[in-house]
Specification:
Elements lengths: L1 H5 L2 H31 L5 H23 L21 H23 L8 H20 L3 H25 L9 H24 L3 H4 L9 H22 L7 E4 L2 E4 L11
Antiparallel strand pairs: 1-2
Helix pairs in contact: 2-3, 2-5, 2-9, 3-4, 3-5, 5-6, 7-9
């Protein structure tokens, strides 16, 4: 991180932006894989349709974003995304809508008892991902509509998963839920305080007067970004590791990996 920053502050933020995007995309696929494993969904074209649909729900809006820069907002900072010189998203759009339509038809048939078993959890992941990414980025072009909703549907399931995992798979008593949440909020506030007073200097009313540490930014920015970089790497890889920690689900154990949606291996 220090080496990237020394090449230019914009370079580390571009690297962080694309690493963040990658981990968001992988998380969505990870949730679908977990629901496939729990529901014992068939492989073959069913698995291919699930994979294409959830990936396109994130990648198509991102491609549209890159093809129509500048937009009303950026991922982290202005110019962190690289603009594409041609509208590749127009070529991908037919595949995007076709996969969504096929997924919807198959889901409706499943609820009617004509095409496998319904999977409300998986369908909710696909629906919320489509609504957040397509409406927030493409239709509304709104930082608030995309970022706030994306943080909620990304972070809240993690909090629930960590809290549940500690109390079941690790066989350790979990703290009361309010202690768990207060601890997370306290840590988040402390982290944001460091960012604001050392780097951004935007909310003195909330975090206090800024510190004059401009000469140390090449060290402070990578240091403060280390927790989120760690999260990006763990989140991006954890879903496809067969030896990843196992999650208790519906009375049976299923592996928390992208390969866990093969019932034989699960």
């Amino acid at each position: 991180g220090v080496l990237l920053y020394l090449q230019g502050a914009g370079l580390i933020w571009r690297a962080l932006a694309y690493l963040a995007v990658w981990h968001f995309v992988r998380q969505k696929y990870g949730w679908v894989a977990l629901y496939r494993a729990r529901n014992q969904d068939p492989g073959g074209w069913h698995r291919l349709l699930d994979s294409l649909t959830i990936y396109l729900c994130t990648l198509y809006p991102l491609l549209y974003w890159h093809c129509h820069l500048p937009r009303n907002f950026w991922w982290f900072l202005p110019q962190d995304f690289a603009a594409l010189g041609f509208d590749l998203s127009a070529w991908v759009a037919p595949l995007y809508w076709m996969c969504l339509a096929l997924y919807l038809v198959r889901a409706l048939l499943a609820y009617l008892g004509r095409c496998g078993r319904p999977s409300p959890g998986k369908d909710m992941v696909v629906l919320t991902t489509w609504a957040c990414w397509y409406l927030g980025i493409v239709v509304l072009n709104s930082d608030y509509a995309f970022t706030v909703t994306n943080v909620l549907i990304h972070g809240v399931p993690y909090m629930a998963l960590v809290y549940y995992y500690r109390g079941s798979a690790e066989r350790r008593p979990s703290p009361p839920w309010w202690v768990f949440l207060v601890t997370l909020w306290a840590l988040a506030y402390c982290e944001e305080l460091l960012w604001d007073r050392a780097i951004w200097h935007e909310r003195a009313w909330l975090f206090g007067a800024p510190w004059g540490l401009e000469g140390w930014h090449s060290l402070l920015v990578p240091l403060l970004a280390t927790p989120q970089i760690t999260h990006y790497v763990l989140d991006g890889f954890i879903w496809k590791r067969r030896q990843a920690p196992r999650l208790f689900s519906g009375g049976s154990i299923v592996a928390a990996s992208a390969d866990a949606d093969d019932p034989a291996r699960a």
